[in-house]
Specification:
By secondary structure, the protein is of the alpha/beta class. The chain is about 40% helix and about 20% strand. A hairpin with a 7-residue loop joins strand 6 and strand 7 (about 150-155). It binds 1,4-dihydronicotinamide adenine dinucleotide and magnesium ion. Magnesium ion binds near residues 243 and 247.
Length: about 350
């Protein structure tokens, strides 16, 4: 039995987690998948009441006793600086050493393309974002704050081990999925330390001679993604650049309402989350698009070895979107629950 920890979090996260689990339970029951779900109330409400974001020992428990974490989103305007959100999400990503942030960017329907003349054929790539180092390590600080001599320093960490393992993951995925091109983005022309990325990329690429490995400066890659998205199958990059490029990728593929992600390490407990946040502007009104969570759930199913069911769920989402049965963000008029019902209807028809 695969034990899945569900952390709905805050706002929109709570709404989409409910729908995600309902769809997964439907699939699990129909196909006899051995999945069990346990919910954890980590989020703003608990943090405001108890002062604790993530209980001590929790990360180790997840690592040892669970097979996957399904995460909604965290963030609440009542919590100053979103301290709880950082502690929970970055705590889990770093604590579980989930070094791969995997984000597929695939346009679901031509009419959702923000680019003239680029449709589902052209916009279909995945990003491997480094997830445990780079700029997002908190090393640095502010000296002489508030004075005319103020200095703010933020250190970027790139380790050989960290760079190599994310690049290797990208090539490994490309090979497994029959992709032929891997692009790497850094900024070694302005940041000398990024030479480590280029060198490591060339070394790992040499082990995959059948693959076309191409280096880009990140600014050029951002431009090419908009002009010629069809050039890309797999992109591997740093934590910071990956954060930015994947929001661009989400926009190219139909918006945050459908953007899915996985945080992975083959030796740890993976965490799956929609790319969007807690959407306080629309949370609690039935306006949140649950499709990002469904596609995220499909990533989880695939990772747990249920490839066929993952494809079924993806297809159900694709059909629902193709029929225009969507929430407002994709131009429709349906509520969160109504979209969920449509996806379940397609799913049942396919089972
Ligand atoms: P956000 O992703 O929550 O919202 C950005 C915009 O997209 C909003 O207009 C929102 O209404 C819309 N949107 C987001 N998800 C949607 C969905 N499923 N369906 C339809 N529309 C959707 O990002 P924002 O506003 O920057 O942050 C809000 C809170 O979420 C903050 O507290 C932030 O720290 C947190 N956050 C948490 C993340 C996580 O848990 N992984 C990721 C990003 C933000
Ligand atoms: Mg982001």
């Amino acid at each position: 039995m695969a034990r899945i920890a569900v952390i709905p979090g805050d706002g929109a996260g709570i709404e989409v987690a409910k729908e995600g689990v309902a769809v997964l339970e439907l699939l699990a029951k129909a196909r006899g998948l051995p999945l069990s779900f346990e919910s954890f109330d980590f989020g703003a409400e608990r943090y405001l009441k108890t002062g604790v974001a993530l209980p001590p020992g929790q990360i180790e428990t997840f690592r040892k006793d669970y097979d996957a974490i399904l995460f909604g989103a965290v963030g609440d305007p009542r919590v100053k600086d979103n301290a709880h959100a950082r502690e929970i999400l970055l705590g889990l990503r770093f604590g579980l050493d989930l070094y791969v942030n995997f984000r597929p960017c695939r346009l679901l329907a031509d009419r959702l393309s923000p680019l003239k003349d680029k449709g589902t054929k052209e916009i279909d790539f995945v990003v491997f974002r480094e997830n445990t180092e780079g700029q997002y390590n908190g090393v640095g600080g502010i000296f002489k704050k508030g004075t005319p001599d103020e200095i703010a320093i933020s250190e970027e960490i790139n380790t050989r081990k960290g760079v190599e393992r994310i690049i290797r993951a990208a090539f490994g995925w490309a090979k497994k999925h029959g992709k032929k091109r891997v692009a790497m983005a850094d900024k070694s022309n302005a940041i000398p330390a990024h030479e480590l990325w280029g060198r490591t990329f060339r070394e790992v690429a040499a082990e995959f001679p059948e693959m076309e490995a191409k280096h880009f400066y990140v600014d050029n890659l951002a431009m090419q993604l908009v002009l010629k998205p069809e050039l890309f199958d797999v992109i591997v990059t740093t934590n910071l650049f990956g954060d930015i490029l994947t929001d661009l990728g989400a926009a190219l593929s139909g918006g945050l309402g459908i953007a899915a992600s996985a945080n992975l390490n083959p030796d740890s407990t993976p965490l799956f989350e929609p790319v969007h946040g807690s959407a306080p502007d629309i949370a609690g009104k039935g306006l949140v698009n649950p499709c990002a969570m469904f596609l995220t759930s499909a990533l989880m199913l695939a990772e747990l070895g249920h490839e066929a069911e993952a494809r079924l769920l993806e297809q159900a989402v694709q059909r629902t979107v193709a029929e225009g049965k969507t929430t407002r963000d994709l131009g429709g008029t349906l509520s969160t629950a109504e979209v969920s019902a449509e996806v379940m209807r397609h799913l049942k028809a396919a089972l």
